Amino acid sequence: MFLFSFSLFSLVLFRFVRADDVQPFTSYDNDFVDPDFIAAGIYANTTGGAQETITSWAESLSAWGPWSVTNKTILAPSGNKNDYMSWAPYFWPNCTGVGNTTVLTPQQIWVTCPYIDLDGQFNPDRLTIDNIGEFFNLSDSILYNALAHSFQNKSSSVYSQNIARFVDTWFLNNDTGMNPNLNYAQMERGPTGQVGTHTGVLDLKGMVKIVSGIMSLRKSNSTDWTANMDAAMISWTQRYITWLETNKLGIEECASLNNHGTFCFNQLAALKLLVNDIPGSVNASNTYFNGIYKGQINSTGDQPFEATRTHPYHYRNYNLAAMITSARLLKYADPTSDPWNLTTKDGTTIRDAMNFVMTVNPNTHGEGDDVAEIYPNIAAIASTYGDPNGTYVAFLKAGFPEYAWDADFLWDQPLAGDGVVTTSNSTGSGSGSGSGKSAASTHRGLGVLSAAILALLVGAVVGW
Ligand SMILES: *[C@@H]1O[C@H](CO)[C@@H](O)[C@H](O)[C@H]1NC(C)=O
Ligand SMILES: *[C@@H]1O[C@H](CO)[C@@H](O)[C@H](O)[C@H]1NC(C)=O
Ligand SMILES: *[C@@H]1O[C@H](CO)[C@@H](O)[C@H](O)[C@H]1NC(C)=O
Ligand SMILES: *[C@@H]1O[C@H](CO)[C@@H](O)[C@H](O)[C@H]1NC(C)=O
Ligand SMILES: *[C@@H]1O[C@H](CO)[C@@H](O)[C@H](O)[C@H]1NC(C)=O
Ligand SMILES: *[C@@H]1O[C@H](CO)[C@@H](O)[C@H](O)[C@H]1NC(C)=O
Ligand SMILES: *[C@@H]1O[C@H](CO)[C@@H](O)[C@H](O)[C@H]1NC(C)=O
Ligand SMILES: *[C@@H]1O[C@H](CO)[C@@H](O)[C@H](O)[C@H]1NC(C)=O
Ligand SMILES: *[C@@H]1O[C@H](CO)[C@@H](O)[C@H](O)[C@H]1NC(C)=O
Ligand SMILES: *[C@@H]1O[C@H](CO)[C@@H](O)[C@H](O)[C@H]1NC(C)=O
Ligand SMILES: *[C@@H]1O[C@H](CO)[C@@H](O)[C@H](O)[C@H]1NC(C)=O
Ligand SMILES: *[C@@H]1O[C@H](CO)[C@@H](O)[C@H](O)[C@H]1NC(C)=O
């Protein structure tokens, strides 16, 4: 109840202090946007606000690029600057038995102190090498540039040019390109360390977003995505798939029972789409749904492998985002499939996992700041399964009244509910199909009122 009282309060605050304008940038945990949908470029005329947000995100992210694994001063043990590298984020040195830490250099600490795992506690020195942060920005920037490009209805735009430049720098260029392996990802340090761990495969979960973006350019025949680039990217991806399927680290990661396994399989399913191996993509998704998925949602809708983590609210939403992405990938690769109705061994579906997370109070484990992670999941579930009694939309309106200006509102359509009005505050006359701005008869005043009423009701609706 506390959560929802708080939400009502913040709803009112938001309405007074914030314009109905672009949303601040958020990196969604995971998502796959149908490339055919992006290539067609035809969007609901209620998505003008989301379009403005997407274009703004594409532009602000692009200012940080191009990115390259070679942007680091510390090399992997291979000595090869083109090898991707990151350090295990939750591992900390324990120098107690080693010596006086104030006289050890960082390099001495890395190789002499044993490292211990403190789940959920980020070691800040992981950012000394930021290949992971660069890759995150790269993957978001490719997805949002692809969407922004689609609003232009042109074969070339600054957005498609950005993608070509960023893909070339990160993957293809001989000098700056990444070698197609994760041998040194989430490396463990210490006297027996300096080796990558299988959890490092998770660093590249953003490949799903990249595949969405690249495939949409390919399908829309953008002149900036040339046949040569397409062939080079397919070749890179084939070599990386081989690494993922044959290297011990890749094999171990896809054998994980929790979110690591979900993300591993959906990364693989997306990579196979990129190389035009549709049966291979379907097979990767089916291996997940017939395998570890069966144990991931129990009869109460909870996710046992995430509920026991130190940040259970985050991890439940994190794996939920990955399950949603896996379902989208399977449905895309095999339109006759029915992933949304697939049940676990306890008879539950992805929607049951969503309904359970909605009952969890993030403050129980001090995760109030992570509440934003639930909203994209709710939008995805509501648009996929429908929202006959308005429960999902009521939850969104109560906690995140600006949700219709968020990027995912563009593709989480139709977001069923009570007729929420989702236009931007611009007054363009476009049809919403490629103009980047939609006709904007806003019902904002009504929106505030109905949102407030719904927020009052939501304790009753969601409090079950
Ligand atoms: C949006 O499209 C619907 C049909 O899809 C139409 O009925 C409605 O008038 C349009 N609204 C505006 C503001 O153009
Ligand atoms: C990263 O590397 C690329 C390619 O060399 C370069 O263009 C870019 O400026 C570098 N970025 C930073 C922040 O050093
Ligand atoms: C740190 O190392 C010391 C000495 O080797 C050991 O006694 C202690 O248990 C270690 N601490 C943790 C948290 O592992
Ligand atoms: C650790 O080394 C520093 C610098 O030499 C010194 O000031 C400090 O007293 C030492 N601490 C211990 C516990 O030996
Ligand atoms: C990534 O983008 C964020 C803004 O969203 C920025 O703060 C950060 O410095 C960027 N990092 C890199 C390596 O581009
Ligand atoms: C990049 O490397 C490949 C293989 O080593 C070589 O065939 C190609 O000519 C190189 N391209 C450039 C632009 O140097
Ligand atoms: C792209 O080109 C192909 C082959 O020429 C054509 O079939 C397809 O309709 C084009 N797609 C778009 C979105 O223009
Ligand atoms: C489902 O999993 C949660 C978290 O582990 C646990 O608390 C709950 O008891 C489980 N439900 C059943 C019916 O086993
Ligand atoms: C679940 O199955 C029912 C019955 O076949 C179907 O109507 C529905 O569309 C499926 N749900 C989803 C989200 O695909
Ligand atoms: C809302 O609708 C869903 C799907 O039809 C149903 O399973 C659920 O019980 C409903 N919830 C309430 C509170 O009516
Ligand atoms: C939307 O309205 C706000 C003020 O209400 C304004 O600052 C912003 O520029 C407007 N956005 C657009 C795209 O017109
Ligand atoms: C794109 O532009 C062409 C004309 O150049 C037009 O026929 C088509 O309808 C536009 N598509 C969209 C989705 O607006």
From TrEMBL:
GO terms for molecular function: lyase activity. Pfam families: Alginate_lyase. SUPFAM superfamilies: Chondroitin AC/alginate lyase (SSF48230). Residues 1-19 form the signal peptide. Residues 68-359 form the Alginate lyase domain. It comes from the Eukaryota. One of its GO terms (cellular component) is periplasmic space. This is Chondroitin AC/alginate lyase. It comes from Mycena maculata.
